[in-house]
From TrEMBL:
Protein name: ubiquitinyl hydrolase 1
Organism: Ceratodon purpureus (Fire moss)
Keyword Isomerase: no
Entry GO MF terms: cysteine-type deubiquitinase activity; zinc ion binding
EC numbers, comma separated: 3.4.19.12
GO annotation terms (biological process): protein deubiquitination; proteolysis
Family designation: Belongs to the peptidase C19 family.
USP domain boundaries: 267-607
Keywords: Hydrolase, Membrane, Metal-binding, Protease, Repeat, Thiol protease, Transmembrane, Transmembrane helix, Ubl conjugation pathway, Zinc, Zinc-finger
Domain annotation UBP-type: ranges: 115-225
SMART domains given in the database record: ZnF_UBP
Pfam families in the record: UCH, zf-UBP
Residue intervals passing through the bilayer: 575-597
InterPro entries: Papain-like_cys_pep_sf (IPR038765), Peptidase_C19_UCH (IPR001394), Ub_carboxyl-term_hydrolase (IPR050185), USP (IPR028889), USP_CS (IPR018200), Znf_RING/FYVE/PHD (IPR013083), Znf_UBP (IPR001607)
Amino acid sequence: MYSFLAFGREYVMWNYEKTRNPVYLNIQETPKQVSEDRPHKKPTLLAIGVEGGFDSKEPEYEVSYSIVILPEFISLSYPSVELPEKVRLAVDAVLAAVGAERKEEVAAWTADKKQVSPFALSLQQLENGVKVPPSGWKCSQCDKTENLWMNLTDGTILCGRRNWDGTGGNNHALEHYQATNYPLAVKLGTITADLEGADVYSYAEDDTVEDPLLADHLAHFGIDFSSLRKTEMTTAERELDQNTNFDWNRIQEKGKELEPLFGPGFTGLANLGNSCYLASVMQAVFATKDFQRYYYENVKLDDAFKQAPADPTLDLHMQLSKLAHGILSGKYAVPSNKGLENEAPEEPKGKNALTSMLQGQDGIPPRMFKSLIGTGHPEFASSRQQDALEFFQHFLDQVEQNHAAAAGEDPSRCFKFVVEERIMCSVTKKVKYTRKTDNILSLNIPLKAAVNKDEVAAYEKRVAEREIAGEKSDEEIVRPRVPLAACLESFYASEEVQDFYSSAINARTTAIKTTRLATFPDYLVLHMRKFVLAAGWVPKKLDVFVDVPDEIDISNMRSNGMQPDEQLLPETPGLYSLLTCIAVFMLYLRISFVTILDICKRFCNSV
């Protein structure tokens, strides 16, 4: 009741022994019985844990309070008029406070609000005489009559993008933008008297946007929006529908009876609302021996708590030790009893009776860790979806900074390695070596190395034939399969560099660049570059499988360093002169008290 920090029964004595604060508020929650036949509301908002969004499936509780006095654990009922006023005020403050859990719920992810497009405010529409009828639309380049978009510059009606599962359009609206650079299009079928619901897409910004002048832009092509009715879903609604009806069998082991695992090392992390990126990274990190040893095997939680500052929620070492013990100890990797509190156990029937009775596990919610690791970061402090790779590197940076001032082991070093780049002048054969430290190896995915090209070509042919015939396909997608070895080969393959300035000949020529690993990490993290730039500099995500074997030999990626018969390229004189000028200029700034304008004039004259 002094620091407003919360502890479980078995840990509260640590705080008492450290602070000698004896008065605590005990909060007990008892789950309410929930009827299984209650109606499920269909989500109307692309969100999690907010009104109208996806059900977070959080149980409801009966809550009771009491005041506990340590170290004897004397319990006093609350509310009570016999309690001192100071205690009652402190309890009221605790109950009125917004906890970390509630903050997560309030910040639960929702689709981003549409922004006004700058292209809409200055859009130039062509005077080409195009008038669009109120119905009967069709793609001008194919037979599609659904998912149609009208370009707001020239009035051309074209079909939308092809979806990842093969449905949707034929990309004709996108291809039209790539050919013309006309940025905005509106989805026909979403236009009604309420123009705010119309779906406007900016290809230049690659996002759904708001067009405040949409009424004028539609009128230019003879469209009376007040007479139109909605016949199609917007992009956000379709995304909501796909999240609601997604076929999860595509990413799970369909048809297999999977047995839940429990015990040390098999503890799950509860989803806090789009925190999957954090859970996947931390599970992988604590699968390494270095992080296990540093934050679990060599650390006792009570010792970490004693060494932590007054507020342990702000101490990274404390929170990582707490998370490590939660994941690795097995204490929390037990079957969940949700939904079983009021049910009598049945006799096992059949071989898989035990498996079918298990309800999985609740997992541990890493709220304090998520709040701390995201502090000061505009993205990771939010509850929006994030990139796992970016979070991994942010996490390692925080761990490294946390160990910078203290001597001893830094567990983040287990991911570090040195990349060596060798450039050889094609004329003089002289070389230059550069090195950099990294913690991920980013690899391209060469589609030309796919091992099932014939199967992919046959599948794409069948899909095209069905589209021409106007038939829908339920066939499972055939994706290119690229071996990991091919991705690694593309990394260390020699590359010709055009327009290379050779300091040996003081002229531009070509060079050969090769990349190798000067050191190897204990754990090599691979990043597969699935996003590439398509025609028109439009980002595109590759729909591809990468086959990863259990073992792979990467000894041929090892650098041998500079060889005895090699000669180095001379240092570039121009670069040295520039650095010298910069150093002189910085010194001049320190000793001169003239105005900035005079400094610039004098420096320019001296140069």
